[in-house]
Amino acid sequence: MTDARDEAAVERPDDDDHDLLTFGEAGARLEIEIRDMRKRIEKLRLETPLDEVGVAAAERRLADLQEGQARNAAQPINDENFEKFFGYRGTARRNTTW
């Protein structure tokens, strides 16, 4: 659905490292996909005959995207949530230079 995207209206932090998929960029991409999925659902609901299976699948996808957006908004990785986020024990790096 790339042709209908309104990416210009999505906020992207200016200070993000554009070589990485940061929380800010992931959030922007999720917002674009959520907007696209809402438009898709609207179109599907207007079709005759109604494709109930297609609408249900699109609504599940929208719910998954919104769940991802909520997780992304929680953002900071700290020592308490490191293992849950990455799946192994460790500590969050802070102000690290490589």
Rounded Rg: 18 Å
Low-confidence stretches: none
The proportion of strand residues reads under 5%
Shape: elongated
Largest sheet: none
Oligomer: single chain
Helix content, binned percent:
40-55%
The total strand number stands at 0
Query: What's the rounded overall pLDDT mean?
Result: 81
Architecture overview:
With 98 residues, this protein is mainly alpha-helical. It has one domain (2-6, 15-86). The chain is 53% helix and 0% strand. The protein has 3 helices and no strands. α1 runs antiparallel to α2 (52-74). The protein is elongated, with a radius of gyration of 18 Å. It starts with 22 loop residues before the first helix and ends in a 12-residue tail after the last helix. The mean pLDDT is 81.
How would you summarize what this structure contains?
This protein is mainly α and 98 residues long. The chain has three helices and no strands.
